[in-house]
Description:
- The structure holds 2 protein chains of 2 kinds.
- By secondary structure, chain A is mainly α.
- Chain A is about 65% helix and about 0% strand.
- Chain A has 20 helices and 4 strands.
- In chain A, the strands form 2 sheets. A two-stranded antiparallel ribbon of chain A has the order 1-2. In chain A, strands 3-4 form a two-stranded antiparallel ribbon.
- Chain B has 27 helices and 20 strands.
- In chain B, the strands form 3 sheets. In chain B, strands 1, 2, 3, 4, 5, 6 and 7 form a 7-stranded antiparallel beta sheet that branches. A 7-stranded mixed beta sheet of chain B has the order 8-20-19-18-9-16-17, sandwiched between helices. A 6-stranded antiparallel beta sheet of chain B has the order 10-15-14-13-12-11.
- The longest helix of chain B has about 40 residues.
- Chain B is elongated, with a radius of gyration of 33 Å.
- Classes of the chains: A mainly alpha, B alpha+beta.
- Chains A and B meet through helix 14, helix 15, helix 17, helix 19 and helix 20 of A and helix 9, helix 10, helix 13, helix 19 and helix 24 of B.
- Chain A: It is found in: Cell membrane.
- Chain A: One of its GO terms (cellular component) is plasma membrane.
Amino acid sequence: MTITGWTLIAAFLVATVLLTPVAGNAMTRVMGASMGAVGRFFRPLEAGLYRLAGIDAAREQSWWGYALAMLVFKLVCFLVVYSFLRLQAHLPLNPLGLGSLTPDLAYNTAISFMTNTNWQSYAGETTMSYLSQMAALTVQNFTSAAAGIAIAFAVFRGFARGSAKTIGNFWVDLTRITLYVLVPGSVVLALFLVWQGVPQTFSNSIAVTTLEGAHQTIAVGPVASQEAIKMLGTNGGGFFNTNSAHPFENPTPLTNFIEMLAIFVIGGGLTSAFGRMVGDRRQGWAVFSVMAALFVVGVAVTYWAEGHANPAFAALGVDPGLGNMEGKETRFGIAASSLFATVTTDASCGAVNAMHESFLPLGGMVPLVNMMLGEVIFGGVGSGMYGFLLFAVVSVFIAGLMVGRTPEYLGKKIEAREIKMTMLGILVPPMMILTMTAIAIVVAPGTSAMSASGPHGFTEVLYEYTSAGANNGSAFSGLTANSFWNITLGITMMIGRFFVIIPALALAGSLAAKKTVAPSVGTFPTHGGLFIGLVIGVILIVGGLTFLPALALGPIVEHLAMGAGTLY
Amino acid sequence: MTVQSIMPAHDGPGGKESGRNPGRSSLLRADLLVPAIRESFRKLDPRVMWHNPVMFVVEIVSTLTTILLLRDLATGAPHIGFAIQINLWLWFTVLFANFAEAVAEGRGKAQAASLRRARTDATGKRLLPTDTGKWSYAGVYEEVPAPELQPGDVVLVEAGDFMPSDGEVIDGVASIDESAITGESAPVVRESGGDRSAVTGGTRVLSDWIIVRITAAQGSTFLDRMIGLVEGAQRQKTPNEIALNILLAGLTLVFIFAIATIPSFAAYAGGQIPVLVLVALFVTLIPTTIGALLSSIGIAGMDRLIRFNVLAMSGRAVEAAGDVDTLLLDKTGTITIGNRQASDFLPVPGVTEQELADAAQLASLADETPEGRSIVVLAKERFNIRAREMAQAGMQFVPFTAQTRMSGVDIGERCIRKGAVDSVLAYLGNPADASAQAAIANADTVGRAGGTPLAVVDDDRLLGIVALKDVVKGGIRERFAELRRMGIRTVMITGDNPLTAAAIAAESGVDDFLAQATPEAKLALIRKEQAEGKLVAMCGDGTNDAPALAQADVGVAMNTGTMAAREAGNMVDLDSDPTKLIEIVGIGKQLLMTRGALTTFSIANDVAKYFAIIPAMFIGFYPQLSALNVMRLGTPQSAILSAIIFNALIIIFLIPLSLTGVRYRPVGAAALLRRNLLAFGVGGVVAPFVGIKLIDLLVNALGIA
């Protein structure tokens, strides 16, 4: 651990704090359609799109209308991507002549990109044609992110509105987010990446002869455009197999810093947008504070853990001062890799710039725990915020009674229906993750894919299902995916996405229909330090404790064994 | 035991019953314990347990482990002593939960039993209508057993008779002993017409007679409902309880998955975990503490109100009381002491103060209202004018009528009148001279200061104004400040004009007022507050209060009120004391706080239980995990046993708290939350670490595991 390292982490936090209100303001205005001059320029385009699709932008939807529109849209997305991948061999923009994908891989990939998970059971550069990358996958990067943000705004409206029947129009939300947030943001970010050296080309792989005289094929392609939305939309699906560790995806320490910021900017901004929508910015900052606190703890533990050398290597005479450099890029080092690992798992991005599998047990446990908590530390764009609000509702419900009133959050009474939906959204993903892990580690198709044994092998499996269930998509790596994994991970990703979205929308619908209760000094305060501490406690206890037995049998026992000299 | 001892009259307006924890000593009375223990076993019936999902699940897994135990006993498996103990403690967990509920119910049952004694099987004297279709005291009646009386029947109740059922007095006036219902031994007067016409079955007429039209069928009388309420027979889960049960069921469900996946994880690691240990971990992790105490908290909340002589018709009403944002309080009797008192004589120019006082006293001699008496007293104090006998000098009293809105006295040809200023001026033919102007100016001054002006006229000579002043109750300003700190807005309801109302509002410190209040205005005010998302509480007694009582979220009807008011409200105050509204809110808040505190405590407990059981469970195949044994518990067996014992005992330990409630202090939500979060949240994390460690030391010292 170095001063420089801690300074990097502090600088990152400061930059996130500064960007949050800016992004929040921009998104709130975009969704509220108050954009001034820019709006006047783009509005005809937006209106034209609605006319083309036959959508009445003025007509809002009830929660189930909204959910239904979202599900129809997702089904279409799935079918389009699946068809692209299955027919890849017969489609253009395929200079390497790559073949079509197998049904289980195409199914897994289509679900993965549609659910904003971007778990990749394949190596991008040797599996996907340029057309598949751009027209199938990158499009999903935009739409899955836009759908997530749209749903977050629909949930915000549930809190902000009183005695209302509708929570917005899915098609309008989707269009505005894509048109005014994701596309402009990605263009700017892609140009920045190109400037830093990321390729953006349709030309074929480059065959070169190295200085030593060896022949090497260097894969290139339209990387920068995919890279930008991969970060901004917390998708995480890399162009290359090694993701953001690849020098063409993430060439410099500066791109590394900006890519990390891009992961947090929308998630952070949504906390501010939430505060603005409910008419009390302190509420937004309280949410931000919970997330920031959990983030800081996570990155500190990871950096601390990775700052120490593996005792087995130290025993061989490796300088322990270097920390654990296994699986990390020297151009980033320990601090930037620890920070990236924390950011990408906090935010459901799943891009990696180092191999999480090679982290020391406790360093690797932080990304795992971040995902287990339900991806609510900034989280995936949109999904982090609505996931967080489920925890906020439960926190208020458990402790709110202690002020002597029935629980209410932002003027909305939390009653049976709200609790039913909230519990569904919070509890189904963990149940799915645990059940799938329990099956995979005892059946042959599951265990045959594992590369490590003992607790480390167990962690591999647990990590994959957690990553899928939380729609993160980062891989602990080490697993050789087969059809068993493709199918079960696909199911886990779908349940992890839609069993949170649908309850969250139902919650929004039921909250919107309620009267807004006027606040008083007797009302449970949800903007101060007490609330922040309470929500952290509830996230850790309700969200995290269910996983404690699994963690004990994975990273914890591995850590203890490592201290005693046993490695897995 | 007597009825009175069970329902102690509360200690008067301003009493702090809710903070005083009445009857703490009688909390776990021996005479209630034995039936409660018996009841705990009876409640093991799955059809009863089913209503409590968390404990029902515990019962199922306990049955499962007992079957396994019987198998092991038959086959002679090892560690049988450990298995027996775990089984015992699992069943204790279920029984303790049942016991908590039984104790809470038991207290109500004892009260219900004494109420039942008040329900007589007396006969009613059913009157037959006279030829004109009316009923009269002299009419013919037939003796009918009370259960056969139908609503609409008319009965005669005479001195010494018990009221056969609830009803409305349609003729006569009588003094009635209502102690069976209210615990108050002083008799009350009931008469036909007006707001004191309701009579309750089970009460007894002490003197005179009344003719009563029966309004309730047998089985649905006020007394029947009261018995049902205190017994908890009609207890339904409140909205918040239903929501909480969903949360608890959800947590139970997720722990089923968390535990059911462990054998597979262990198998991968080459280990095996006995079912008994998994069950023990499961039962300690699911929220058994709050699951066990939830219903006793609810019963105890209703019970606290009953001890406070307030009957809540539903648990929902008690919850709503905690949520109240706006209190509508009647001025008279709540904010001011009931009566206005004369404070000043303000003569018009050319009249001496003594002259005015003399006339005012003469006009008030026969006026038996407190206001009238206070004028007599003030005149005597100021000018030593003695009260004169009415009989002397041929005085003739002229009573107040709604038409004249004046009262007074005729002494021969001399007519002295006092009354509302506008009425008196109208009586004089609305003069515009200097006297009238001076009187009007004085009247305005009095009104602005919160008083009521009365004009006094001697024949056609306007003498001046008598100022009547409302006397604000001592300490009421502090109560309102307290309510403000609780986040509750108070609105004073008064029939006074706006000027008077504003002055009293300022003096008493009430937040807002509704002057010249009509029933319609009251109803409109409640609707307006509710439209702003506020919950409103009010009390009332008259039939014209009924719509407002029904509209209010918490409507407290006075027991002295009409049947219509009692039907409309969701609470009945047996003492008919409007000040109690403030305490009722406190009791509601206390109920909710207790529920929240124990829920938080229960969930926070899980951290320590994990740390007790996880190392114990996995240590067989991963000895390194003993590092997680932060409590340094003796052996794996003692760790598991200690956790399950702690989990069971904490229920017993918290029964008193669930019955008396967490103390509510009016300090604002943020301060309350800080205090409770520290006590039950942080305390809930820490307490089991200490508790389990202590039990483990004991278990190891005794060598039982």
